[in-house]
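S1.2 Input.
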Amino acid sequence: MGMDITVVTADWEHLAGIPAGARLDALTDAVCPDSCCDRCEEADRAVPGGWVGQRGTPWCAEYRFFGTTGTYAWHFQLAEAWEDLRPAAAPALREALDRFLGGLFWYGPDRWAGAEPDDWPRPAPGFPGDPAPWRPEVLVLASPDEVAALARAWEAAAPRLEELREPFAATAARRPAWLGTFDIAGALLREWGEAVTGAGERGWGLIGLPY
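S1.3 Output.
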């Protein structure tokens, strides 16, 4: 069984008032509250994708990806696909998607500049006041300022995604069949754009929880 990912946006000011060691528990409770009944879980499962109802938690909201069933493999393979596509992308598009996907999946442009994994820069502190900014127990961690930068990168990349259709088809054999078409990968990439845009509109941070 592989790792899952649950993506949420949260109010950093609210998180700042929660002790550092309790923040992940608070986020978990916000996404899956004990008070949630079978009826609301069934209603959530009926949502095809997008922002899920906040269940009475005004400082946190979940973004649900359509068709990925929660598994992290889809998102990991999306970043791996970009590894293949980078050489074919125009410089402006390459720069924008390096920033966008690098900011979401901890790689950063240095991954594609030949640096060894141990030399890749770790993310800036994400949780406010966290004494341990590098938190391997989360899959995505972007502060509101970082989300704003990701949103700008997405705004630059989104109109040009079609440029990647032919190079994607040329390298499709390198990827799993379930992410083997440009339309599937492009849809997932656009969902990340929607998640980042929604977090940016709220002025909140973005977090990928490993479940």
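S1.4 Remarks. Helices lie at 12-16, 23-31, 38-45, 73-85, 91-104, 144-157, 165-170, 182-202.
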